[in-house]
Amino acid sequence: MIRVDDSKALQNRTDLTAELSQAHEWLQKATGKGSDFVGWVNLPQDYDKEEFQRIQKAAKKIQSDSKALVVIGIGGSYLGAKGAIDFLCSSNYNLKKKDTPNIYFVGCGLSADYLQEIMDLIDGQDFSVNVISKSGTTTEPAVAFRFFKAKLEEKYGKAEAAKRIYATTDKARGALKSLSDAEGYETFVVPDNVGGRYSVLTAVGLLPIAVAGVDIEALMDGAKEMMETCRRASLDENPAWRYAAARTQLYREGKKIEILAAYEPAFRFMTEWWKQLYGESEGKENKGIFPASVEFTADLHSMGQYIQQGERHLFETVVRFGKSASDLKVPFDAADGDGLNFLAGKDMDYIAAQAMDGTLLAHVEGGVPNLIVSVGEKNAHTLGELVYFFEYACGLSGYLLGVNPFDQPGVEAYKKNMFALLGKPGYEDMGAALREKLGR
Ligand code: PA5
């Protein structure tokens, strides 16, 4: 169960019940802005069970015939899987001794050195590819796919390579779907009514996550439990209501930046996923909270200064997890050169909890409101709950802000410029104008 504590964030609560009720109805009845993209609202219950079994089967095959899985995707077709695998398996997943394949993410940028490095790392190993693109035409993953498709075909021949390529894309349209049908790749679907940043609980996230050995049934169960909780139209019974209400109130009071903080290094990429979810959903029409993130306690030694004493336009949302799986106690040291023997025998979780409370009080006293999101132990069920909680609160928050939380018109601007500068047919005039602006 997720709990949101706003007592260290708000002096007095503004009553947003009427606005929340409206936003809630828009999500539940699919009648608000962007309603073609609210398929994620009932997804944990309505997902395609046959496809889910195929995902599990494909994951087992990849585990049995591959030492590496190359996952190709960007944005919503990347961050959820990366975040979940780091969080549930370790941010050192590829370095660990394990029975599951290493997982490499590519197509999430345009660095030649990065691409080459991954090709070198998997050289000589049996590998498979999961190419993920809803549109099928996104430049970064499409370019990366060319390299890894060629590498697979060179290693195994075209027919065997086709059996090692898994494409996650639109069910009927797009370049990737056409190619997959022509070449005979196994395909999985990004549902029409689920946008990229809300797609981690579809095949987009589930296949790579399952390959890493995560119990994806537990993930979906956690999401379903939170979906049921989020159906309640109540500030006291629905944590997403409380979170959306608090962050909206803080924004209206001038807190324009939200920092998502966790005391868990493995959660770092989930904060990247969260940043896309909120940034792309809310940052439009010259409005929106800027989503930032920190990893504590590491960043207390870098960003801590700004948070404590910089401009007061920030609030923090701290995700707190239950007990760690590792039971570590601080060793006694006879010399006690660091003067820390008063901690000897103390549990690391206990020490971290004191750091959290100390930081909370310091930041609140420094003028940074703190919202606390308490979740369960670090496991797949908890992550499923957390993903759905953040998604639902994001939909609510976007509607409270007055924007369409499900489009991303601004993402196109850089793509058009890039195509024009690269000389894509049809963009010639624009390319000339841009080169002039750049003084080339
Ligand atoms: O949220 C989004 O829609 C984007 O981040 C997309 O997921 C991203 O641009 C990748 O798009 P596609 O899956 O079509 O390649």
What do these coordinates show?
The structure is a single chain. The chain has helices spanning 17-29, 43-46, 49-65, 79-89, 112-122, 139-156, 158-162, 175-183, 203-211, 216-230, 239-252, 268-282, 304-309, 348-365, 380-401, 412-422, 428-438; strands spanning 3-5, 68-72, 102-106, 127-132, 165-169, 186-189, 257-262, 290-295, 314-320, 370-374. By secondary structure, it is of the alpha/beta class. The strands form two sheets. A five-stranded mixed sheet has the order 1-10-9-7-8, sandwiched between helices. The chain has a five-stranded parallel sheet with strand order 3-2-4-5-6, sandwiched between helices. Strand 7, helix 12 (268-282) and strand 8 (290-295) form a beta-alpha-beta unit. Helix 4 (79-89) packs parallel to helix 9 (203-211), helix 4 (79-89) packs antiparallel against helix 12 (268-282) and helix 12 runs parallel beside helix 15 (380-401). The radius of gyration is 23 Å and the shape is globular. The termini are far apart. 5-phosphoarabinonic acid binds at residues 74-77, 133-135, 138, 141, 195-197, 280, 408. The site of 5-phosphoarabinonic acid (PA5) has 14 residues, from loops.
SSE topology:
Blueprint lengths: L2 E3 L11 H13 L13 H4 L2 H17 L2 E5 L6 H11 L12 E5 L5 H11 L4 E6 L6 H18 L1 H5 L2 E5 L5 H9 L2 E4 L13 H9 L4 H15 L8 H14 L4 E6 L5 H15 L7 E6 L8 H6 L4 E7 L27 H18 L4 E5 L5 H22 L10 H11 L5 H11 L2
Helix pairs in contact: 1-15, 3-9, 4-9, 4-12, 10-15, 11-15, 12-15, 16-17
The structure holds 5-phosphoarabinonic acid.
The site of 5-phosphoarabinonic acid has 14 residues, from loops.
